[in-house]
Amino acid sequence: MKTLEIIGFKRANLDSAALNEIRDSGNVPCVVYGPGIPEQVHFYSPAILFRDLIYTPEVHLVELNVEGTIIKAVLKEAQFHPVSEALLHADFMAYTEDKAIKFEIPVKIEGSSPGIAKGGKLEFKTRKLKVKGIAGNLPDFISVDISNLDLGKSFKVAELKPEGFEILTSPNVSVVTIGIPRALRGKKGE
User: The Large ribosomal subunit protein bL25 L25 domain covers which part of the protein (predicted)?
Assistant: First the structure.
C-alpha cells in the first residue's frame, strides 16, 4: 500500500479563534491519536498536502512528520465545509506494524461481463470494503472479476478470497450487479 507524507506543526491553542486563524492561512487543523501515542497530538498542516490523500479513489497509509516526530497513521475522518467543501479538520489514527487496523479499501473491477455485452448495465452496490489486517498486508485495492456475470447476476463479498487480511463487510453484500435495462426485461423470458 502506498504511503504519503504529511508535514505538520504542533498547535497549543485549541480555541475556535485559533482554529479559524489556522484555516484562514490555508492550513488544516488535525489531531492524531492511537497506539504508541500517550496523548492526542494536535497539529496543523498545509491544506495542499491533503490533495493526494483525500481527493483520490486510492487509499494511502500516512506518515505524519510533526516537527520531526514521525507517526505512522491512517486518515480516520475528514470534516468538510457544507457549502464550499473546503477541508475543515482531519483526524488520524496511529498504528503499529504488529497490530491489525481497520480500513476501507476500494474495489477495482476486472474482466468483461457477458451480461454487459448483451446490453446490461454495471451497477456498483459498494465501492469500498471494510477490512482488518496488518498495515503491510493491506492491498491498494480489492479486485472483483466480473467475467462470469450475466444479466441480473451479482458478485457478493463471500466470493472474495482475501490473503493476509480479513474482510469485515458482510459476506451477503453485493459488490456489483449486472442490471437488466427496461428494454431487455421483456425479452429475457423469450
Answer: 10-92
Residues 168, 99, 73, 14, Cα dihedral to 10°: 100
pTM, two decimal places: 0.75
- Render the burial of 134-173: b for 16+ CB within 10 Å, e for the rest: ebeebbebbebebeebebebebbbeebebeebebebeeee
- As annotated, the residues of the chain forming the CATH 2.170.120.20 domain(s) are 102-188
Identify the CATH homologous superfamily for domain 102-188.
Ribosomal protein L25, C-terminal domain (2.170.120.20)
Q: In 3D, which of 60, 72, 75 has the Cα closest to residue 28?
A: 75
The model's pLDDT over 39-73, given as tens digits with 9 standing for 90+, comes to 899 999 999 999 989 888 777 889 999 999 999 99
| CA end-to-end span of the chain | 48
Note the pLDDT tens digit of each residue in 91-105: 999 998 888 888 889
CATH number attached to the domain at 2-96: 2.40.240.10
Q: Any residues with CB less than 8 A from the CB of 64 and at least 6 apart, and which?
A: 5, 6, 8, 32, 43, 70, 71, 72, 73, 92
